[in-house]
Amino acid sequence: MARPLRAKLDLDALRHNYRLACECAPESRALAVLKANAYGHGALACARALEPLAPAFAVACIEEALELREGGIDKPIVLLEGFFEESELEIIAREGFWTTLHSDWQIEAVERSRLPGPINAWLKFDSGMHRLGFGTEDFVRHWRRLALSPKVCGVHLVTHFATADGVDMAYANHQLAEIEALRYRLEAEGYEVPCCLANSPATLALARARGQWHRPGLMLYGADPLERANPFSARLRPVMTLESEVIAVRSVEPGEPVGYGGRFIASRQTRIGVVACGYGDGYDRHAVDGTPVLVDGRRTAIAGKVSMDMLTVDLTDLPTADIGAKVTLWGRAEDGSQLSVDEVARHCDTISYTLLTGILPRVPRIVSVG
Ligand SMILES: Cc1ncc(COP(=O)(O)O)c(C=O)c1O
């Protein structure tokens, strides 16, 4: 492997973060969310690492669930978007997948299905996200139907928070009130109502959002979804280290531009290091001048627009850094210094979810040991 760019994966950190998610909500069981190729980390490698700990997994769709089954993962797998075509129901029943039901047509399909056995249904409540799911009256009507249906062997209430990552918790508390009212109403009719409520932000910071299950995604990978400080977030460990090397060094005079569009203009005699990593690898082209990187563990910054296969960094204050110097785009450098993907994301006017899921197949994933 000659090109030095790689995404190193620390699966011990993944297990540590999973245990932390369990510690945040000890009375609840944690579904490990592995959708979008485990947020870019490799779904099968992550599932195998978590299988001894996690009672179940969650993915977006049946293709992602089948990849895990074919890789030998035999734990229950929740389909967070449910099925897209009625024909998937047979596979869902055969493979023991648990499916979200968010629309009338899906419930009708379950009711008219002829399956070898009943399926586990996760009925989606729209508590305020207004994306997928049923409002209160439709939810109650469907719940009663499914509870009686021989096609179903268990019904869960599943919902999603829109703003649990923010500073103002008023809307998350409003969603919680909607959930509690619905639950109270169903329990008053004699139903048991197992719930799955919390994503990572709610797992970390919304203690009242703990149902029988919670669904951490991003935090498993060591990124912090919260806009505010939180003692649990401070204990997250990065799973992915995006690492490359300086492949060329040049000196530019004051006033000279660097890279496409000449965005960076040297204000002094400047040593520019060229790094093998670009937007063709998934590194965000919106990274501004000043976006942090570590070179041999020491902080410096991007200078010039990100190109397809390369980016340029300012090495002026790192005179010993030369061709072959290790560059950490995010994650943990060999000397233990760290650069959080959340900090890089802020310089790209985005969130760490997009940076992690955006790393392209071109970048080899290497499981790091120790
Ligand atoms: C329905 C659902 N549940 C859980 C998650 C996991 O969220 P997070 O990565 O914030 O933990 C997501 C993520 O997009 C989701 O869409």
Automatic annotation (TrEMBL):
The keyword Isomerase applies. Pathway: Amino-acid biosynthesis; D-alanine biosynthesis; D-alanine from L-alanine: step 1/1. It catalyses: L-alanine = D-alanine. One of its GO terms (biological process) is D-alanine biosynthetic process. SMART domains: Ala_racemase_C (SM01005). PROSITE patterns: ALANINE_RACEMASE. Pfam families: Ala_racemase_C (PF00842), Ala_racemase_N (PF01168). CDD domains: PLPDE_III_AR_proteobact. Substrate binds at R131, M308. The modification N6-(pyridoxal phosphate)lysine is found at K35. One of its GO terms (cellular component) is cytosol. The active site is at K35, Y260. GO terms for molecular function: alanine racemase activity; pyridoxal phosphate binding. Residues 239-368 form the Alanine racemase C-terminal domain. Its cofactor is pyridoxal 5'-phosphate. It comes from the Bacteria. It is an enzyme of class 5 (isomerase). Keywords: Isomerase, Pyridoxal phosphate. Belongs to the alanine racemase family. Catalyzes the interconversion of L-alanine and D-alanine. May also act on other amino acids. This is Alanine racemase. It comes from Halotalea alkalilenta. The lineage of its organism: Bacteria, Pseudomonadati, Pseudomonadota, Gammaproteobacteria, Oceanospirillales.
